[in-house]
Amino acid sequence: MSTVSEASVTPKVEITDEDIFAGHVGGKLSVETTAPLDSQRALSIAYTPGVAQVSRAIHADDTLADRYTWTNRLVVVVSDGSAVLGLGDIGARASLPVMEGKSALFKNFADLNSIPLVLDTKDPDEIVETLVRLRPSFGAVNLEDISAPRCFEIERRVIEALDCPVMHDDQHGTAIVALAALRGAAKVRGRDIEGLRVVISGAGAAGVACANILLAAGVYDVTVLDSKGVLSSDRGDLNEIKADLAARTNPTGRTGGIVEALNGADVFLGVSAGTVPEEIIATMASDAIIFAMSNPDPEIHPDIARKYASIVATGRSDFPNQINNVLAFPGVFKGALDAGARRITEGMKLAAADAILSVLGDELAADKIVPSPLDPRVAPAVAAAVAQAAKDEGVTAS
Length: 398
Prior knowledge:
alpha/beta, Rossmann fold, 16 helices
């Protein structure tokens, strides 16, 4: 039986096409100066001849760039436009409004400078080489909206090639918030997440990352499905990523599809474009937990899901329990940069999930298993936890 009241549902805000396009005229970003340029003296300090002294100093000691340029606080949001939102492969130019929005979120929630960098190529070699060549210009890389399975290779290779924080947010931002939400849901239900039987629908970027972080958090029984059914070791049609995941999940050897997987399951976590019929959801364990995270259309409508689940979450803002990546990525990158981390580790992601949940405290409830994406407490809490985890794991520069 649902414990979510109608009053807790965020009212739907009516937005017209005119509102949307007006809000994007000229883009969503601008550059502001931090040094005055209102006199000849100020101009001589900020630009020639004064700037030459700073350039000479950095030439002699390139670590000074961190102090005297914006590099170490600049996140580049990088995409090839191949998997943008629910729009698919729309190309680099059409993806730019989304990347501008992501950069705006970095500034608004974590006070990090950020610029979008859309690349007119889908070749992993060219993407990696481009970022290697541009490395002196930025301090961290947020990979965004790159299609699977190329996203796994690209992220791995960029991490290997660069000495700075790199994260594909479609994978790990989603996974971090999903773990935080599951911890919150389990706490409300009086359960330990380790004992939950979890079914993940979707074996793309988000699905793989969610499975990995749940395993790292101690969840034992995780089953993952792609469009052809359960990932199991006896399937001969799996790519390298799925085969690896099949070897580490599905401990009881289930086969078949969504019908077989969901029967008796405690948790449904949907990160696919598919739909799940009500009669299948009805076979889940009593007081189930349902995260139907696809946007804009969840795998099962929340109103139907609540007939069978005690806790329901979606990716939408007009229902309770929005699983939104903005709860994670601003604080993760801020914490990594604050600590001088060379990379973002699994431990830092787990720390981020714990920090997100910790913000709620006594506010935790069935209709509030994660904070609001607009909660100003979240990014600072996540940043502090991530920075400490980076230091504890020894991935900082010093």
